[in-house]
Design brief:
Strand order of the largest sheet: 1-2-3-9-6-4
Strand content: 5-15%
Number of helices: 18
Family: Belongs to the cytochrome P450 family.
GO molecular function: heme binding; iron ion binding; monooxygenase activity; oxidoreductase activity, acting on paired donors, with incorporation or reduction of molecular oxygen
Largest sheet: 6 strands, mixed
CATH architecture: Orthogonal Bundle
Distance between the termini: 43 Å
Radius of gyration: 21 Å
Keywords: Heme, Iron, Metal-binding, Monooxygenase, Oxidoreductase
Structural class: alpha+beta
Number of domains: 1
Order of helices and strands: EHHEEHEHHHHEHHHHHHHHHEEEEHHEE
Number of strands: 11
Protein name: Cytochrome P450 107B1 (P450CVIIB1)
Pfam families: p450
CATH class: Mainly Alpha
Amino acid sequence: MTLQDPLPAVEPKAQSDSLPDPVPLMGCPYKSNPYPLYERMREAGPVHRVLFPSGVHAWLVTGYDAAHAALNDDRLGKNHDRGNDRWRARASIMPEPQHSQLQVHLLHQDPPKHTRMRSFVTDAFTPRRVEQLRPRIEELADALIDALPETGPADLVAGFAAHFPFQVLAEAIGLPQELAARFDRDWGKVVQPVGPTDPARPVYEARLHGLQSYIADVVGYKREHGDDDLLGCLVAARDRGELSQEELDSMIFQLLVAGQEPVTNQITTALIALFRHPDQLARLRAEPALLPRAVEELLRYDSAFELTTWRFLAEDDDLHGTRVPAGDSVIVSLCAANRDPRRFPEPDTLDLDRSPNPHLAFGHGIHFCPGAALARAELQIALGTLLARLPGLHLAIADEDIEWISAVLGRGTNHLPVGYDRRL
């Protein structure tokens, strides 16, 4: 079956109750397992009005065919200027001047500006460049495991997953060690909505100012040293007038935040999926050559990129049979698309032999994740190293005690207590 083939019909299941309008996407039961709700939404139709914890109303696209089409729909733009006043009142919560200075990165741009800006970063993340980095990535993974306790228990987020992606990112983009050591992972939370009246607003704004000062230091360092790496090339492009200061700062912001936290979360979702399927975990440990295909299935099965960022129609229009007003936010559920039974046979089964596997975990179209090749290598190396060097690796808490992050768009956990027999 190809991406262009029509999806086969699936017999809808009877439901005892109808979906609310809007559908609330919030609460611990939803965050711990959104897939039953996504199944109901897919069966009821491809587009639904939803409500986020911030009070934002949006239109959620849930089926594979509709999601794939939306990700390639030229009518749906990413620029925040398209958002209407209803959306802006609750969703555009980063204050000025920071919003204008840090929010003009690739995720919020449309062609031709998006095309121009993306051209500056693609060479740093090509499969060839990633393969050149692989030995160094393996060294980083081993060093972190060397620092774990000789026997369990241990928290694999605090001891591994929170550090590994950022260390790899620093190598890939040319962030010097002295600056990398100063990065506060807490700054990444500036992408999580905190409204103007929220009691946590002062903490949010302190994070924002801290990150902005850090970006200024990175730019200053690269301008002084003239390094021939991604960060150095971006600063040089700014100095040649090919990027504005806001574009430069925003692209560094995106690299630092989007370039590491999703991989941290994907390591946790992949491990949890394997812990819930111990036979598959044992097989993967015994057959490391299976890792590339297994990672694709783990990405499909429970993606850290649960939902995409906002898209907007420039005028009222039809979206898969639903009339959507101009400037309302449209969001694609990648997780719902990746469990669509019309595209993936037995979608709720973790099948490490699944092929083909045209999942949408990295999106699709012009906004396909430019760092996908690097993320794939990180996941292969992280999982392979953990399974090889921590025999008997298992979850050290009850499954129901896993605390899933409350982030609106992502899936993962901030803590992952594990046990293992010994550290090899």
